[in-house]
Amino acid sequence: MFADTISPTSFSASLGVGESVTIRKTVVVEAAGPSAATIDAHFLIDTSGSMGSVINNAKTAAGDILNALSAFGDLASSVGVYSERALAGDAVRSGLTTTSATTISAINAVTLGDPDFGGDYPESGDTAVDLATNNLAWRAGSNRFMFVLSDASMKGTDEATVIASLAAKDVTVIGLQFGGNCFSGEPGECSLTQSIAALGGTTFAGGTSPASLVSAITAGITSGFANYGKVTVDDLGGGLPEIDVSTVCVSADIGACVGADAIGKYDRSIDRTFEYDVTFTRLAAGDKAFTTFALVDGGIVARESDRFTTGKVPEPGSLAMVGLALAGLAAARRRRA
Hints:
alpha/beta; Rossmann fold; 6-stranded mixed sheet; 17 strands; Ice-binding protein C-terminal domain-containing protein; Ice-binding_C; vWFA_dom_sf
């Protein structure tokens, strides 16, 4: 279940090409905070020669983290590798998929020495992080994490560029340090912990239990929703090409409505209610079913289902029938991310 709500939870109508219908949607951002999330997780594994004694431990840890995250929310995951060399095709070996078994297979396929055995320290982790950040097809509204599993510090693409890429894609980088090695890397860095910290991330010991790691991650997600500044409703392009969706904010708990958004300095000290007029316009013929989301600071917190068949928009006198169809629908619950 989801702590935040959007209502009605579903809407259906028959529209002819060029016709539109507008309905009022109410979003409640609850004081209780979110309890689930849309998560994208990329596992980036160092395959250089020095990982020989711990590569299997790293693969096991990646699989354990994946399984733990699967129970938390709507998860998509992917896998990449790097060593002395870091190319886009290595940094993203498997694209994001919601089928965890596919990612587990990709993790199991990771092999020491592929793409190369390294040869010196550090490895090209900075380049791999930057390539993965910019080449993955991150899902709209997701909470995005990149797990770097290595025994050494990172080099390659300058850190300012990597930091900018991570910020632009809203990706959080997390390190898992295997072994106690400390090798010279970027100035002042000799370990993965220092390299990840330089990118604004946090590193855990490779032996950290998946439960403890996931607990820390989910606490971070939840605390990130304690204060927020923008609430809106959007289908994130899901209705196209048949249905165009446009939103107008009509009331905000506090703050102000600016176009499609409620803008203000909000917190979860109380439940807060926001209202929107959402207009669906048919652009092309064909049945269409898709999801419309409530978004807090760009992250999905609630969702509802829309379905349209090709036909005529209800006349004003028959809109009461639409109201009857919507009666009794329970609130959909969803959180960021």
